[in-house]
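User: I'm curious whether this sequence folds into something compact or stays loose and floppy. Could you predict its structure so I can see for myself?
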Amino acid sequence: MQAVLYLRVSTKEQMEGTSIAFQREACFRYAEQKGLKVLKTFVEEGESAKVADRTQLRKLLEFCRVNRGKVNALVVWKVDRFARNVSDHFSVKAILAQYGVSIHSVTEPIGDGHMGKMMETMLAGWAEWDNSVRAERSTAGMKKKLEEGLWPWQPPFGYLSIRAKAHGEKKTQPDPLDPKRYALVRRVRKEFLKGIHNVASITRYAAQIGLRMSSGKKPYPQFIDKMLRNPFYAGILVNPWTREEYPGKHEALVTPEEHQKTLLILEGRSLNATPRLRSHPDFPLRGFVRCANDGHGFTGSWSTGRRSKYAYYRCSDRNCPLYRHSIRKKMLEDAFMAFLASVTPRGTYLDLFEAITLDLWEKKYREYNADAERLVKELARLEKEKLEFMSGKGKLLTDEEFLGVRAKYDEEIAITRLSLNETCIEEWDIEAAITYAKQTIRNLPRLWFDLPLEQQQRFQKLVFPKSVTYSPEHGFGTAELGLIYEINRIWDGQKTTLVPPRGVEPRFTP
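Assistant: Here's the prediction. I'll summarize afterward.
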């Protein structure tokens, strides 16, 4: 099967950053996993001032129409990269369905639910809906088999398919071991657990002891790597859609603990490594605050005294003096809140920030309304022309020419309607929102203290993008601040070079 990719960002800043690269990598990886050959990639570059009219989506639809039958799938990273609402999504999907192209989302299982399938097929046809329901029932049946501890597909190397032995009947028993191969597979996996092999050397070992693939050829590294990573050999069944794990009824060749050790060896980690929580509600500054001596992140732990337990932070470097001389949790966090207080924006600055934000919001609101008016007129023109064509001019064309022109009108109308929907900005009380924000950030220490752990950590990165350093002698050092707080720090009450001069477009996305 062959596919095209559609990548999109909302702003020029994202285009110049990592968003497109991230989407491209994820979409190509998805296509490879699904066995899709990528014919072409369409990249929609963001526009910060005007609404993009989706020129690349137009080209994509035209490419699919011209190459009808050659393109089978459209891969997007996420549905909101493709269309902002359900109606737009299914409108364009219906056009693609006419060209034999299905939409695949890398991060979302679109169309798997009954209602989602029904809405798609109302536009694509009852035949597709009937096939989708059958496919969903089949998927549900496979999931039920997994829950029963049975693998509904062909088992991995070293096992025999019970379905083949039952002449195509439904599987009711677990797949048995292959008497000719299972002992060799077990030897390979046990040998790898010694920790003296990499994939290349264990592949040579497998060939030396006589292991051969189903084709009769010697195993290659990719084959052995896949075999080592497969949890089926540890008696674990993994749902390919949800990644849920179920205990299998088949005979395992290694224990689950041995399988975990195998994965650790493949990742180059110690066999004694144990999972550790990167975040802990008792130590919100762990890893964020760094030692002023050597730059290592602070870690946190509890110490048990004679009467109670005490919480401490310390440098994570064993060679640092602060590794042994811990800092009480309360002492460090009180110092951090004092540091937050020192960078809290002043009232005069917040008033100025409010005025600038309101002015910019009103400007952008006017621009988007102007775009909306333009697109409304464009949509009306296209629909009028299509109606005239269908009732008059189209009768002079051949059937093939008629269908081609009508498809072109459908594409233009769908894209224009999609662009129109993206110009809509919700009408909400921006002044009340800014007033609330001002009142909230007037006391940064209190705000940080009251937040739950995950939001605390995100808030820390907002104020201090590159962490902060600390020493017991000098406290917190000078740290890089987020843009809003940096402007506040250097603002002298008059002007700042960090605010774009009049006539220069600031970075803003409503």
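Summary: The mean pLDDT is 79. The domain at 162-266 is CATH 3.90.1750.20 (Hect, E3 ligase catalytic domain fold).
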